[in-house]
Amino acid sequence: GRLQLIDRKKNLFKLSQGEYIAPEKIEIVYERSPYVAQVFVYGESIKSSLIALVVLDEEYLSLSKPQEFADIPLSKLPESKEFFSFRSRFHAAIRQRRTQQP
Fold it and tell me: Which contacts qualify for 12-17: CB closer than 8 Å, 24 or more apart?
């Protein structure tokens, strides 16, 4: 089966340290990646960080899997050290892009 979220109840929420977050803006940045099929960002006012549920685009991954993942089956990819390294670089690029925006 497949579950698809249409919209959320609140489009802005406040984390425990007082920071206001617009999760849709974060989701839009992640959805720009061809590797990402869907993303959902969640946060609670009693927590100081967010959680993101990311669904990878298996079709795109199988057709254009980076060379560093060539020998890793898709089912083992999320727990591999190569993917961890890729994810770290991806997050660094997102942070850099965010700081460059006016």
Answer: 13/43, 13/44, 13/45, 14/45, 15/43, 15/44, 15/45, 15/47, 15/48, 15/49, 15/50, 16/45, 16/46, 16/47, 16/48, 17/48
Q: Give the number of other CB atoms < 10 A from CB of residue 63.
A: 9
pLDDT tens per residue across span 48-89: 888 999 888 888 877 776 677 778 887 887 888 888 888 888
Q: Phi/psi at 65 (nearest 5 deg)?
A: -60, 130
Burial class of residue 41, CB neighbours in 10 A (0-12, 13-18, 19+): buried
Site of tokens 């946060």: 43
Q: Which residues are bridge partners to 87 per DSSP?
A: none
